[in-house]
Every structure is written in structure tokens, then in C-alpha cells.
Amino acid sequence: MSEQSVPLETSQNLQNLSLQNVPLRNRHQVLYQKEPEDTFYIFENNVWKKCKNVDSLPYSLTIFQLEDGTEIPTCKDSFRLISEEDYNNKNIPSKKYIEDEYEWRSKINEKDEIDFKYNNEWIKAEIAWKKSDIIPNVWNINHRKSSWIGYFYYESKKFVKSSTYTHKFTEEELTKEKQEEERIEKEIKEREEKYNCFLNSLKTFKIINNKLTSWFQTYKPKCILEYYLSLDIQDTLSDEEIKNIIHKDMKFEELTRFLKNLASLTYLNCDGCISNIEENGVKFCTYKKKNYLISTKYDTYYDIYIQLYTLDKIENVFLTISNNKICKGVYNKELNRIEFPDFHKLNPLFTLECFEIHADNLPENAKCFYKGVLLNPFSRMLMFGKNPFAASYLKSQKEYIFIHGWGSVVFIPENELYLE
Predict the structure, then answer these.
(1) Contact assessment for residue 293 and residue 337, using Cβ atoms and an 8 Å cutoff
(2) Which of 97, 173, 232, 384 has the most CB atoms in a 10 Å sphere around its CB?
(3) Average pLDDT of the residues in 160-184
(4) Beta pairing partners, 372
(5) E strands, 103-240, where?
(6) Is 26 helix (H, G, I), strand (E, B) or coil?
(7) Sign of CA dihedral 49, 52, 54, 60
(8) What does the domain layout of the chain look like in residue ranges?
């Protein structure tokens, strides 16, 4: 395969060119560091030819240049590439070996299984799909029936025929595996039907003549407050209770706050657990040059306040999420604390993000107190997964905030919304 380097074409011109007419180096827009040149021998046109690596490409591809200037892209562990030392020592693969490797690899299709050398161990893998944006036959590899591994050129010696080095499944094993997959698929389908049933029972927010009409039509945000208030939410177990239920091999003092909540949720078999949280780690925001407090991650929050231990006046106190100011704190002179009364037991803040408290002169000894609720997986998925924008009501501002699981926030005045 001969490729000559030419100046970059404009993007408009590239759209009119087929892949084979675009020079190799112009098929991507990533600058790869050139590796030190070395000498190799590559099997090309039934002959071993001397070459050197001259450039790097995506997917661990390398451009090798023959002595006549011809450029050949492949991977450095290609079955048809050997070092100069191996060539001089006559450690040269036979022509039959090369032909056999080409033969079985050329028959591999998407979803076929192979053995793959992963972290120096042979594992079962499968071809998710093939890519041809740089050169044809770059394979996207997954663990067998599992997670992604990466992209590799099909000539790589990391590939061998399926079950060469790994266990060969019997028909009985494959049958059992298929039955288990069908069972799991059935459970997933039933769970999805249950999610849809609950979602359809929830009222949907609609907007009145607003530029965000298309946004509401796309995301169809649900009113989850009524559903949330119907859940069986209990207090997190005490430390002594948790000590009595954890496994004997677990050390209580090593349990994080989250694990204690999770243990309570599992043991009580309820919809959610409430924790009374005290955050006393005041941090410094470098770019704003202000102190701030940050919460632990929960699913809902309420009864949030900042306890002060001096009489210094604190100004411009805001609860924020992902740098969005959600609401302003209200100073309670009698208790010397800053409160956020919008969020209470019957109207919590719904968000998967941590919230932060920012103020102009927040003292270092200030503490943040709040109640955090950890929900069980089903309720959490229904409220935040199947319903990507969870709505919380701000009575002080007469508006709703819709907070995405990734932290983006949309504010809508109450009088522009209705439920249907």
C-alpha cells in the first residue's frame, strides 16, 4: 500500500474524496508523538522487506517505510513484522504461518469471539465492530459479553483463534449461559415495564408559551414530589446498630458515612434512609477567593443551615449547584445561623450533585448542618435516571429549578408552568 504525504486538504474538499484518496496522515486530526526510528522487516508481496517506522497513527498504528519509499501502515506487533535481530538470526515466520494468520483473521465478523492477550493474560474477547476511518480492519474489542477494551489492528499478535489459550465451552455450558442471559433479559424487561408504569402515573410539567417549549417536549420532566412523599423513608441506624449487623470481617471504624447509610438501607429494606449531617470542613475557593462549604452526595436534602459561632455579619450567602446560584440564605438572628427555608421535609432539594454554600466572608469555624436522604436503587433510577431533570420548588422565588444528574440547572417561573 503506497501513500505519499501531501498538504492538508480543506474540510470541504475532504468530503468529496473517498478514504483511499485521502493521505494517511490527513485521516485524523490528532498529533501523535513520533517514536524513535528502528529497523524492521515486513512480509510484503511474498517477500521480507527491510523497513523503518516513520510516523504514528491512531489505534496504535504505525507507518513503516520501505527502502523504495513505499509506506505501509500496520501495528508494531503485527504477525508479518519482525525485528532486524530476528531477521539476522533467521527467526523468520514461514510463508504458511503468514497465510494461515491472514486466512482466519479475514473470516472474522462482528460479534465473533477470539482469544486476546490482555495485561499479559489470555482472555476471551469479542469483536464489537470494525472501524475503517484510518485503514480498514481496526477491531473494536470488548471483554466477552462485557465491557469495552479498546481498538486494535487485526494483524496484532494479541489475537489468536477463539479457545486457543482459554477455556472451550461445552454445549451444556453454552446452554446454561443462554438460559441465564434470557433470565436477566426478562428481569430487565420487567423492571423497565415497572419504571414505565410509575412514570406514566406521574404528572408531567408543561410550559406556557416559552422559548423552552421544545426543551419540555424533549425531556418531559415529571413532578416527583408526590411520589417521593409516598416513600417509606426511615432514619439511618445508629452506630451501635450498624456494628451489630455488619459482617464480622468488616471493621466499623473503616466504614465511610456512605457505607453506613447503605448498610442501613439494606438492613431496613426501605425506600430511603435519612442522615443528620454535620459538615465542618470549610474550604477556600481559589478563583472566587472565598471560603465555602460543600455537602456529601445524597439524593435529596432539606433543613439546611449554616451555624455561626461569631457575631460577625455574613453577607451574600448562596446555596449553589455546579456554580449556579440556587437560593439566598436567610439569617436567623435568634439562633445565629443562616437558613435555607425553601427546602424542608415536605419540599426537599432534589439533586444528585453536591451543593455548596458560598459567602463573602464565611468564617473558617462555620459548620453546615442538613438532612440527606439516600434512596434505594429503584427510586433513585425512577426519580433521576428515567426522569433526567428533577424539579424542586423555590417558594421564596416563586419558581421551579430543574436539575440534571450532571449538574445543569434550568429556572422556570411558577406562573409559566402547569401539570398535566
Answers:
(1) no
(2) 384
(3) 95
(4) 275, 301
(5) 113-118, 121-131, 138-143, 148-153, 159-161, 205-207, 233-235
(6) helix
(7) positive
(8) 1-160, 171-201, 228-232+271-419
pTM value is: 0.66
Query: In angstroms, what CA-CA distances link 218 with 108, 201, 203, 204, 411?
Result: 40, 18, 15, 12, 17
What is the C-alpha separation between 332 and 29, in angstroms, rounded? 58
- pLDDT for 189-239, tens place per residue? 999 999 999 889 999 999 987 788 888 888 899 999 999 999 999 999 988
Nearest Cα to Cα of residue 354 among 398, 401, 305, 293: 293
Return the pLDDT at 285: 63
143: CB partners within 8 A, 6+ apart:
123, 124, 125, 126, 149
Q: Rounded to an integer, what distance in angstroms lies between the CA atom of residue 371 and that of residue 305? A: 10
Determine whether 12 is exposed, middle or buried from the number of CB atoms within 10 Å of its CB (0-12, 13-18, 19+): exposed
Matching residue, cell 531477521? 87
Q: Which amino acid is at 86?
A: D
> 160: which 3 cell numbers?
489468536
- What's the distance, Cα to Cα, between the start and end of the chain in Å? 63
Residue 107: DSSP 8-state: T
pLDDT tens digits, 356-374: 888 877 787 888 899 999 9
74's enclosing H/E stretch is strand 71-75
**What are the Cα distances from residue 112, in Å, to 25, 143, 194?**
30, 12, 34
> How far is Cα 201 from Cα 387, in angstroms, rounded to an integer?
13
3-state secondary structure of 149: strand
CA distance 5 to 70: 11
Query: 195: Cβ–Cβ under 8 A, 6 or more apart, which residues?
Result: 381, 382, 386
222 CB-contact burial (10 Å; exposed 0-12 / middle 13-18 / buried 19+): buried
More confident residue, 95 or 360: 95
Reduced to 3 states, what is the DSSP secondary structure of residue 88?
helix
Distances (CA, A) of 372 to 183, 300, 405: 36, 6, 17
Q: What is the 3-state secondary structure (H, E, C) of 284-298?
A: EECCCCEEEEECCCC
Q: Report d(CA 229, CA 242) in Å as an integer.
A: 26
Q: In CATH, what is the architecture of 228-232+271-419? A: Sandwich (2.60)
SS3 217: helix
Q: Which pLDDT value is given to residue 359?
A: 81
Note the pLDDT of residue 158: 96
Planar angle of CA 242, 246, 247, nearest 5 degrees: 165
